[in-house]
Amino acid sequence: MTTELADDVGAHADVLERVLLHLVSVGLLNRDELGAFSLTKLGERLFVEGGKGATPPWLDLGNPLGRAELSFTRLLDAVRTGEVAYAAQYGNTFWDDLDSDPSWSAQFDAALARGVERRAREVAQAYDWAALGEVVDVGGGDGTLLVALLRAHPTLRGTVLDRSLEPAKRALDAAGLSERANAVAGSFFEPLPPGAGGYVLSRIQSNWSDADVRTILLRCSEAAGTRGRIIVIDELVADGAVATENDLRMLVYFGGRERTAANVCDLAADVGMSLEAIIPVGEWTIMELKG
């Protein structure tokens, strides 16, 4: 059994069996009388997210999130210095490493897109996107959210801005939306395309420090002017709740943190922005800000 599995996954059979036997000894795997391995209930809880058959990407060391997980070996350094553990581990930021390897960037965008897909239709229906006329999805990855918004609102136009324009361009072309949307390469730390009715920050704020989030919000506010809106969409922490696991991941990977709506409002106020509306969408929240 182990030899066949080793052939399937490209592993050394003897070494693989020794690792699997250890996982049996700690209660993550069972081994039957024929030598076949299977997950225990504890193993299923660890390896399968929400019982939906999706293996968490941070358990795959060939994935950029799995590689980032190894940065937890530098957690003590981060506690002592306040520096980002990932950068201490690898000598580059997480974002620099994504830029250096297109396959990693694609894997990261896909991981984010899976999260967005679960809520995109609800987000599209929960807010009057058409009233904005045109939106810029700032840091919009492969365009998953913008595609959903444009499909739900036929008069809406949009742009995806991210490190690379190609993933979003392909998605928009495939969806038949290229006449109403485009993709541009850029950074949200630099001036953004001005004049749109809305600037969307979807699942962005937790990946950055307070200082960086202020800069990102300021760039959006500058581009939006007095008429545009900044729309923050995220899985915000409820007041009084503590999302410790994800909070530590944000700290170790990026130097970011999990935030409440009040935390985001405070950062927005620091750069002269105010909260206009807040709309719960399941586990997500839509925040409308104005400069």
Task: Describe the protein in words.
This protein has 291 residues and is of the alpha/beta class. The chain folds into 2 domains: 49 residues, Winged helix-like DNA-binding domain superfamily/Winged helix DNA-binding domain (Arc Repressor Mutant, subunit A, Orthogonal Bundle); 178 residues, Vaccinia Virus protein VP39 (Rossmann fold, 3-Layer(aba) Sandwich), CATH 3.40.50. 45% of the residues lie in helices and 16% in strands. The protein contains 14 helices and 9 strands. The strands form 2 sheets. The chain has a 7-stranded mixed sheet, sandwiched between helices. Strands 1-2 form a two-stranded antiparallel sheet. A hairpin with a 5-residue loop joins strand 1 and strand 2. The protein is globular. 35% of the residues are buried. The model has no long low-confidence stretch (mean pLDDT 91).
Short description:
By secondary structure, the protein is of the alpha/beta class. The protein has helices spanning 2-9, 13-25, 41-47, 64-69, 75-81, 85-90, 94-100, 102-117, 120-126, 144-152, 166-174, 210-224, 244-254, 261-270, and strands at 29-31, 37-39, 134-138, 157-162, 181-185, 198-202, 229-234, 274-281, 284-290. Strands 5-4-3-6-7-9-8 form a seven-stranded mixed β-sheet, with helices on both faces. The protein has a two-stranded antiparallel ribbon with strand order 1-2.
State the major sheet. Answer: 7 strands, mixed
Proportion of beta-strand residues:
15-25%
In DSSP terms (H or I, runs of 4 or more residues), the helix count works out at 14
Please name the CATH topology of the largest domain: Rossmann fold
**CATH A-level architecture of the largest domain:** 3-Layer(aba) Sandwich
Strand order of the largest sheet: 5-4-3-6-7-9-8
Determine the CATH superfamily of the largest domain: Vaccinia Virus protein VP39
Which segments are poorly predicted (pLDDT under 50) over 5 or more consecutive residues? none
Which descriptor suits the 3D outline?
globular
Order of helices and strands: HHEEHHHHHHHEHEHEEHEHHEE
